[in-house]
Amino acid sequence: MNDNRHGDGAILALFEDLALKAGQAIMKVYDAGFVTDTKADSSPVTEADRAAEKIILAGLRDRLEGIVCVAEEEISAGKVPGDLGSEFILIDPLDGTKEFIGRKSDFTVNIALVREGKPVIGVVFAPARGDIYSGRPGHASHGRVSSAFAIEKTSAMSVREAASPPKVVASRSHRTPETDVFIGKFPGAETVSVGSSLKFCLLASGEADLYPRFGRTMEWDTAAGDAVLRAAGGTTRLVDGGAFVYGKRKQADDVDFANPWFVAIGDAALLSSIGAD
Ligand SMILES: Nc1ncnc2c1ncn2[C@@H]1O[C@H](COP(=O)(O)O)[C@@H](OP(=O)(O)O)[C@H]1O
Ligand SMILES: [Mg+2]
């Protein structure tokens, strides 16, 4: 990867192709019915998570040989990569597993390239909705996906000027009291509960303004949506306004890819709400 054989456009196209294939496998499981298992951290997992991750990793390792892939289910199984390098890939094959199990439509496939700590290329595919969101430096787009899992009707997207009061998106399944305190700073703000990384995409497409996450997430939960948001002109910051970075672990065998709390923002004018500019 570091020899620049693969341009950003080619990497994005590969991510889209693998996300579509993974989404197709997920919908097969969704339609057929499935058994839910519980992981060591007591979070749920299904055959769909595992099948999707296998497809994505096989494709990435075949086409982008040598790049480190950090994938949710492999990490759960104790397969932890050593040195991440200056570029690596984060994969959450099925984000919003609780929504998937609850037969809602807000679950996503997520693939992101991190370069020097920043998520620069990302794809988020919501297979039950037929929406795919893509971002690379300087360009973000939304595509509608056909029943044959092909992208059609692509359009460029960007964040909007913030509404007043702002429209807020928050986790459907893991909302915390601290999140509610933050939202309370915006009297009259409409809050929409959505599962998965789709919250970043709603900011990126100009449908909402703020996504406060005062609660646990992992780097693979956020990297792809964050890449789409940044490509659309938005930003993600620590709750004190500091930089939100990826590949934060301190040592090579560290299994903890947990994120600190953050606020994702569409319009830069809202940076002042977290004391940043
Ligand atoms: N108590 C909990 N149980 C399960 N997942 C949790 C959790 N608290 C936070 N999460 C994280 O929140 C993610 C879902 O985000 P959201 O709440 O925005 O829908 C989950 O991703 P997975 O669904 O990939 O496991 C998981 O990483
Ligand atoms: Mg997740």
Automatic annotation (TrEMBL):
Which annotated residues bind substrate? E72, L94, D95, G96, T97, D221
User: What are its E.C. numbers?
Assistant: 3.1.3.7
InterPro entries from the entry? Answer: CysQ, CysQ/Inositol_MonoPase, Inositol_monophosphatase-like, Inositol_monophosphatase_CS
Q: Which reaction does it catalyse?
A: adenosine 3',5'-bisphosphate + H2O = AMP + phosphate
| Protein origin, superkingdom | Bacteria
Select a single GO molecular function from the record's annotations and give it. 3'(2'),5'-bisphosphate nucleotidase activity
Which UniProt keywords are given for this protein, alphabetically ordered? Answer: Cell inner membrane, Cell membrane, Hydrolase, Magnesium, Membrane, Metal-binding
Q: Which Pfam families match?
A: Inositol_P (PF00459)
Q: What is its main location?
A: membrane
Its membrane topology, per UniProt?
A: Peripheral membrane protein
Residues where Mg(2+) 2 binds: D92, D95, D221
Family assignment from sequence similarity: Belongs to the inositol monophosphatase superfamily. CysQ family.
Record-linked PANTHER family = 3'(2'),5'-BISPHOSPHATE NUCLEOTIDASE 1
As for what it does, the entry says:
Converts adenosine-3',5'-bisphosphate (PAP) to AMP.
Q: What name does the UniProt record give this protein?
A: 3'(2'),5'-bisphosphate nucleotidase CysQ
Q: Which organism is it from?
A: Aquibium pacificus
Upper taxonomic lineage: Bacteria, Pseudomonadati, Pseudomonadota, Alphaproteobacteria, Hyphomicrobiales
